[in-house]
Amino acid sequence: MVDSAGKGFRREKGVEILLALAASVSVLVTIGIVVSLFSETAGFFKEVSVKEFFTGTKWTPLFSPAHYGIAPLVAGTMLVTVIAMIVAAPLGLASAIYLSEYAPDGVRRLIKPVLEILAGIPTIVYGYFALTFVTPIIRAVFPQTNVFNALSAGIVMGIMLIPMISSLSEDAMTAVPNSLREAAYALGATKLEVSYKVVIPAAVSGIVASFILAFSRAIGETMIVTLAAGSTPKLTFNPLDSIQTMTAFIVQVMLGDAPFGSIEYKSVYAVASVLFVVTLSLNLIGTWIVRRYKEVY
Amino acid sequence: MTLESIISVRNLHVSYRDRKVLKGINLDIYKNRITAIMGPSGCGKSTLLRCMNRMIDLSEGARVGGKVLYRGENIYSPKIDPAQIRFRIGMVFQKPNPFPKSIFENVAFGPRINGYKGDLSALVEQSLQRAGLWDEVKDRLHENAYMLSGGQQQRLCIARALALEPEVLLLDEPCSALDPISTMHVEELIRQLKERLTIVIVTHNIQQAARVADYTAFLLQGELVEFGETSRMFTVPKDKRTEDFITGRFG
C-alpha cells in the first residue's frame, strides 16, 4: 500500500516537472531572443552613435557613404500602417456592428467563418494580391504611381486586419448585456441609436484595444510590405512612392550577403529592437486598456 | 366616475415557434388606474406586458396575432412605428438596468434621442423628483449609476422612463430583485404615480397585487382566468382557480 502510494506520488511529481519544463520553453526562448537582440544592438551602437540613429534622416547602410538614421524606415512603416488602419478600422468596426447588432443568425453563421478564413490566408498571398491586383488598379487611376508603393501594401494590409478588428470588437459588443439594449429600445430608440449610443460606448474599451492590437500587428507585418511597398528607404508621406519599412529592411539584409558581425548585419538588430519595443508597448497598452476599462455591468 | 380604457387587448395570441404562450386574451387597461397582471411563473404575464409596447418584437421567434389598441389604434398595424409606441408607453424591467453612464445621462437618454428641445436639467430634476430619488442623488448627478444601490437603481430606471412623460408605464416584476424596504419604496412610488399616468404591473407576488393594484388580471397557462377590481377579486373570486391561487394552494 505504502509502496504504491509512493510510486503514485513520484509519478505525479515527474509529470509536474515535465509540464513545468514545457511551460518554461516559451519563456526561455523569449528571454533568449531579447538577450541576443539587445546584445547585438549594443554592438551596433559601439560603431554608430545613438544620436545619429534616432535623429538622422538618411538610411543607407548598404552604400557608401553609409548613413544610419532610422527615420525613413519608421516613416515608411507608419505610412503603410496608417493607410492600413484607415481601411481596417471603419470596415472592421462596421462589420462588427453588423454581426453583433443587425445580422440574423443565419447570416452571422455564414459571415463569421468567411472572416476567419480571411484571417488564415498566408500573408505572402496578400502580398501577391497587392502587387498583381491592387497596384495595377492604383496605377490605372494615378499613372505616376511607382510599381512598388505604400498605398497598395497599406490597403491590402488593411484588408488583412479587418477580421482581427471585427472579431475582437464583436466579442466586446456581444458582451454588452441585452438588458441595456432593451432599456434603450423601451425608451423609443431605433436600432442605430441602440448601436451607437449604448452598445459602442459600453464596448469602447474592447474596440480601442482591437485597434491597438491591429496597429501593432500592422507594424510588425513583413511579407506584404516586402513584396509590394518597395525597398527604397525614403522620408516621405506620399503613398504613391516606393518606401521601405523596418521589417522589409530586415528581410532585405538577411536575404543578401551581409557578412556576419559587419555593421550592416548589426544594423538589422538595432532596427529589430526598435520594432520589438514598439510592438511590445502597443500590445501592453492594448491589454491594459482591455483590463482597465472592462465594463462591469 | 366613468372608466376610460387606454389600452385594449383584443383576442391576442402569441406563440414562440410551436409553443402557444397566450391564447386569446381580452383585457382593458383603464386610464389612471393601476392594473396588476398576476399568475405563476410561465403563465405568459410578461409576454402579455411586452405586447403592450411592442417590446415583443425583440423576442426572436415570437409571433403575435390579434390586436392591441392604444387610444383606439391597433399598434400592430403596419403603419405604426414601434419606436413611437415605446416612446409613449414606458417600461421598467425585472432587474434594474441603468446604462453604464452617469445618473444624469441615464435620465437624459430618452429625451435626448427623441430630440427634446426644452431645459434638459430641469426635466432630469423633475423626473428624479417624481421617482422619489432626487434628494438622494442631487449632489452626485454625474456619478456612475452603478454606484447606486439596487433599489435606487430601479427608481432611477423609473425616472428614466418618466423623463419621456409617457401616458402608460409598464412594470415587469419591478421588485423581484429588490429587498423588502426598497420594494416598499417602489410600491409607494407606484401609488403616487397613478395620478399622472396609467400603470400596468406584472407580478407573481399575490400580496403585491393586493397592495398596489386597483384592478387585477389573473393569468394561468396563457389564458385570462379572471379580471376585475382587486378588492372584489381578493374577497369574492368568481373562479375556483383564482381562489386557489390567492389562498396559496398553488403557484
UniProtKB/TrEMBL annotation, chain A:
PROSITE patterns: ABC_TM1
Segments traversing the membrane: 17-38, 70-93, 114-135, 147-165, 198-219, 268-290
Lipid bilayer topology: Multi-pass membrane protein
Ligase listed as a keyword: no
Entry keyword Electron transport: no
Protein keywords: Cell membrane, Membrane, Phosphate transport, Transmembrane, Transmembrane helix, Transport
InterPro entries for the chain: MetI-like (IPR000515), MetI-like_sf (IPR035906), Phosphate_PstC (IPR011864)
Pfam families, sorted: BPD_transp_1
Domain annotation ABC transmembrane type-1: ranges: 74-286
Highest taxon in the source lineage: Bacteria
GO BP term, pick one: phosphate ion transport
Protein localization: Cell membrane; Membrane
One annotated GO molecular function: phosphate transmembrane transporter activity
GO CC field: plasma membrane
Function description: Part of the binding-protein-dependent transport system for phosphate; probably responsible for the translocation of the substrate across the membrane.
Family of this protein: Belongs to the binding-protein-dependent transport system permease family. CysTW subfamily.
The protein's name: Phosphate transport system permease protein
From TrEMBL, chain B:
Keyword Transport found: yes
Name recorded for this polypeptide: Phosphate ABC transporter ATP-binding protein, PhoT family (TC 3.A.1.7.1)
Pfam families in the record: ABC_tran (PF00005)
Coiled-coil annotated residue ranges, if any: none
Domain of life: Bacteria
Any single GO BP term: phosphate ion transmembrane transport
Source organism (scientific name): Thermosediminibacter litoriperuensis
PROSITE patterns reported for this sequence: ABC_TRANSPORTER_1 (PS00211), ABC_TRANSPORTER_2 (PS50893)
Keywords (A to Z) from UniProt: ATP-binding, Nucleotide-binding, Transport
